[in-house]
Amino acid sequence: MSSDQDHLKETDTEARFEFKKEEKSAFKSEKGLTEETIRVISEDKDEPEWMLQRRLRALKQFQQMPMPTDWPGQPDLSEVDIDEIVPYIRPDIETRGGAEKWEDLPDEIRDTFDKLGIPEAERNALSGVGAQYESEIVYQNMQEQWEEKGVIFMDMDKAVREHPDIVQEYFMTKCVPPSDNKFAALHGAIWSGGSFVYVPEDVTVEMPIQAYFRMNSEGMGQFEHTLIIAEENSEVHYIEGCSAPKYSHFNLHSGGVEVFVKEGAHVQYSTVQNWSKNTYNLNTKRAIVEKDGTMEWVSGSMGSKATMLYPASILKGPGATDNHITIAFAGEGQNIDTGAKVYHNAPNTKSTIESKSISKDGGRTNYRGLVHIANGAENSSTSVECDALMFDNESTSDTMPYMEIQESKVDVAHEATVGKIGDEDVFYLQSRGLDDDDAKQMIVAGFIEPITEELPIEYAVELNRLIELEMEGSLG
Amino acid sequence: MATLEIKNLHAEVAEEGGETILRGVDLEVKSGEIHALMGPNGSGKSTMAKIIAGHPAYEVTDGEVLLHLEEGDFGDDFEIPEDKRTWNLLDLEPNERAALGIFLGFQYPAEIEGVTMVNFLRTALNAKLEEREELFEDDDETDDEEEEEVGYDTSPMEGNPDDGEVGVAEFQQLLQEKMAQLDMDEKFAHRYLNAGFSGGEKKQNEVLQAAILEPSIAVLDEIDSGLDIDRLQDVSQGINALRDEQGTGILQITHYQRILDYVEPDHVHVMLDGKVAKSGDASLAEDLEDKGYDWVREEVYETA
After folding, report:
1. Disordered: where is this region (chain B) (predicted)?
2. What is the structure's pLDDT at A26?
3. Residue A113 pLDDT more than 50?
4. Any bridge partners for residue B59, and if so which?
C-alpha cells in the first residue's frame, strides 16, 4: 500500500466510504427488466437451462405481484422504478468467476478495496475473503485446510456451474421462494453473484468466512444471493459487509440470503451494511433450522434511504434455537424498517431477539417483528427486547412486535424501551473531559456494544467508525 | 496552586419562571485545602456543585466563578502564559472546565452501559489533555515550526506517537496502581461504567476518577452517602490521597460529621437559603452535629 493511501486511512475516514470509481465495465445490461434482459444475463453467465427457467418464472411472479404499500408506518417506495435500474454490470476482468490472486485485479478495483481496508483484514489472516465488486466475485481466497475438509466457499455464479446438483436443490426452492414477496421475485429474476457456502457434516470452520459487497455504479441494482448450507453438526460463521457510494439517482439493493442449518449445526450470519443515502435496501433473508440446530443473525443496518429487512428463522426441528441481534441507525431523511421473524414450528424451540435502534435529525427507525408459535410447539420460549435511542424530538422510533401464539405451554417475554440520549449521562461524561459530541458517541458506542462484541475486531471498528461519521453528519 | 473563587453567585433553574436557588454565594477554595460544605436539604449545595462544573439545567443570573492558575499548575513542562491565568468558568463548556482542572464527584453518577471503565477513563484523560492544549494555544501566533520539532519517543503500544496520547499499556498500568491504592478489585477496569455498581462502588469509582484525572479542585457531592464504615474509610483515604499526593483542593459537600472524622477539613461552611451563612474551622462541624442548623439560622437572621 502506498504511503498516501496510508495517510488517507488515518486522516480522512470519510473518504474511505465516499469515493467512487469511474465506471469501467465489460458488459452492462440494458436498463429495465424484460424477458430479453433476463435471457441476456443468463447467457452471459453461461448458465444451465434450469436456472434460466427459474429466472423467467420469477420474473412472471414479479410482474404479477403488487408493490407493498399499506403496511403501517412502511417506508415510501414510490420512487423505486424498476425500469430505471441497470440490473447487471460485470466488471472488466479477464477471468470470469474471480481472479485467483489479488495482484491480478485491475488497479481501480484493488484501490477500492484497499481504501475499505479489505486486503488489510485479509493480510491479517482472519481467513479467506470473497469480495464482490459490482455483480461478480472478483477476488476470492480460501484457506487450503477448508478445502481439504470439503468446505466450499465460492461465488454463487460459479457454484451454479460447478455444483449444479446442490444449487438446484436449495436455490430459492425451500427457503426463500420467489413467490415470497415482490422483491424476492425480483431477486429471483435478476440475481447475480453472491456467496455459496457449503460445510459438510461434523466440520467446524474455526475462522469466520468473509465477503464484502460494494455497489459502485450509478443507478444500478445489486442482487447478490447468499446460500449457506451447514450439514449436520457443522459450524460456521459467515460475515458480510456492504457499502455503496452516493449518487444522485437512486440505487436498489435487493439481496437474498438462504441458510440451511441441519441437525445440531450452528450458523452465525453477521453483516454490517452501509448503503448510500439514496439506496433502497430491500432484502429477504431466511434460515431453516432443523433439530437442535442454532441460527444466529447479527446485523448492523446503516445508511440507505429506506431499508426493509426482517431476517427470519423457521425453527423446524425440536430443540432448534434462534438468536437475533440487530442494530439500526437512521439520520435525516432515512427510514430504517428492520426487525426479525421467528416461526416456532416444533416443541422445545427457543428464540431471542435483541433489537437496538438509534435515530437522529428526523430519522425514522421501526422495529417490525413477528414471533409465531405454532400449536404443538410446546415448551418453547421467546424473548424480545427492543431498545430505541433518540437524539432529538424530531426523530421517530416505532415498535411493532407482532406475537402469534397458538400454543399455551410456552414462555413469552417482550420488553421495549424508548429513550432520548440522557442529558445527565452526557453531562457526566463532559464533566470528565469529553466534549459534547464525543460524549454522545461514547454513549452510542456503548449502546451498540452487544453487536460489536459479536463481530471480529475489524468489523466492530468499522461499525463504530461508521456510526461516528453518521453522528457527525459527514457521511453523504 | 490553583484557586477557585466564587463571587456573589446567583442562579436559578433554567426554565421560564425557574426557582431561584443561589442568592449570592461567596467561597474560595485553594488547591491543597479541604473545605466542608454543610447545610440542610434544599439549601443549594448540589446546585452550586453542578454550576461549578457547568450543568446546563441552571442559569447564572449574577456573580462569577473564577479559576486562578499559577505557574506549574499543570506540571513543570506546561507553560501557562501570564494572560491566561484567570478564567471565568461560566464562559466555558463542562469539558473545558475539566481540562482546566475542575472535577465534580457526583452523588448519583450516570451508568453508561457498554463502555468499559478502562476505555472511558483513558478516553477522558486524553480528551482532557488535548482540550488543555487547545485552551492554552496561542491564538495570534502560529507555532507551526515548533510543532514540527515535537516528537514523542514512545512505542506503538503507548499510543499514536504524533499526538502525545496516553497509550493503552501505559494507561493500564496507571489504572492498576490507582485501583490498588483505593483497594478496588482489578475486575472493575473491565466492567461497564457504574453499571450495576453498588452505591459504595460508585462512590469509590468517583474518587478513582479524580485520582486518574488529577484535578486541581475537586467538588465532591455527598460522596459519603450510602457508605458502610469500611467503604467510608476507603473513600476517605482516597480523598486524603488526592490532597496529599496531588495537591488537589477539595470541596466536600456533606450532611454528616461522620466523613469529617476521616477527612479533616481546614474550613467548614454552612449553606442556608442559597448563601454561605457561616464559615469556621473543623469545630464548626462538630457544633452542627450537636446542635443542628437552627442556631446558625437564628444567628444569621439576628445579625441581619
Report:
1. 133-163
2. 55
3. yes
4. B12
pLDDT band at A115 (very low <50, low <70, confident <90, very high): low
Task: Please tell me the number of Cα atoms within 13 Å of B130 on its side-chain side.
Answer: 17
Pairing status of strand B3-13 against strand B58-68: antiparallel
Domains of chain B in start order, with CATH, are 3-303 (3.40.50.300)
φ and ψ at residue A89, rounded to 5 degrees: -130, 125
> Residue A334 corresponds to which amino acid?
Q
Burial of B196 (0-12, 13-18, 19+ CB in 10 A): exposed
A contacts of B98 (beta carbons < 8 Å): 430-433
A-B Cβ pairs (cutoff 8 Å, strict):
85
Lowest mean pLDDT among A81-85, A232-236, A438-442, B248-252: A81-85
Please tell me the distance from the alpha carbon of residue B243 to that of residue B264, in angstroms, as a whole number: 11
Kindly state the cell numbers that stand for A361: 435529525
Each as own residue / partner, the long-range contacts of residues A99-106 (CB below 8 Å, 24 or more positions apart, any chain) are A99/A138, A99/A139, A100/A140, A102/A139, A102/A141, A105/A138, A105/A139, A106/A24
DSSP H helices in A275-342:
none
Nearest Cα to A228, choosing from A261, A251, A187?
A261
Weakest-pLDDT range from A30-34, A310-314, B118-122: A30-34
C-alpha cell at B252: 466536600
Query: What residues of B are in contact with residue A425 (Cβ under 8 Å)?
Result: 110, 112
Contact A428 B106 (CB under 8 A): yes
Facing A433 at nearest CB: one of B99, B110, B112: B99
Closest CB from B93, B113, B120 relative to A435: B93
Separation between Cα atoms, residue B219 and residue A441, nearest integer Å: 26
Candidate from A210-224, A450-464, B100-114 with smallest mean pLDDT = A210-224
**Whether residue A463 has pLDDT greater than 90:** no
Cell of B26: 461567596
